């Protein structure tokens, strides 16, 4: 299954509309509120990345499967929590531009908010490209291995669609440009593809679990308890990554 120029064009058009909408929202929100939201995104990305590296360190770092999973869960969770907390503080503290009388100060307020709104939209758009590329790389081996025959119809269509969108974004001269704008390093996407290949091949997965460093991790009491949880085992057998990450034991 290959990519589609149509889906690449559709994604870029939706992204352009989203940028215009975010710029308009920044115009209405004003300089300070938009600035706080932009600072929240940057701060959450930096602190989330740092938390991911620290959480993954005991498991061998982000280059290894256990560390990668732990880092994504901890770093992503912390980043989302901080973003919503800072966004809420900004929304309650600063007024929108419509609350100010029209004049030079209001115009400067609006232009600054529009600029920050555009940068917020650009950051979120680049983040969505990273998500599509990383999840597509993770699921690509399942689609190529035709492992979706027993999966629910909706799940199979979403998986195929996500992989196709990922390949579409990498087509033609636009593909390398989008890849260079991706805030995540190429190693991250390569690791996601390797993990996808690993979890889709039972023989490779068995050899991976027999690796001495992984055995040390599996012998940890908390990890052993996790693998004895019936919901986690069932989700692992179904290869339902979303259900695994939402499991309370995890």
Find the structural class using helix and strand composition: mainly alpha
- Average pLDDT confidence is 75
Main sheet characteristics: none
Q: What's the gyration radius in Å?
A: 21 Å
Number of continuous helical runs: 12
> How many strand segments?
0
Q: Per DSSP, what share of the residues sits in E-state strands of 2 or more residues? A: under 5%
What is the string of helix and strand elements?
Answer: HHHHHHHHHHHH
Helical residue percent band = over 70%
Gap from first CA to last CA: 33 Å
Globular, elongated, flat, extended or rod-shaped: what is the shape? globular
Oligomer: single chain
Written account of the structure:
This protein has 250 residues and is mainly α. Helices cover 78% and strands 0% of the residues. It is built from twelve helices and no strands. The chain has helices at residues 5-29, 31-56, 65-93, 104-144, 153-169, 174-181, 186-199, 202-209, 212-218, 221-227, 230-237, 241-246. Helix 1 (5-29) packs antiparallel against helix 4, helix 1 (5-29) packs across helix 5 (153-169) and helix 4 (104-144) runs parallel beside helix 7. The longest helix has 41 residues, at 104-144. It is globular.
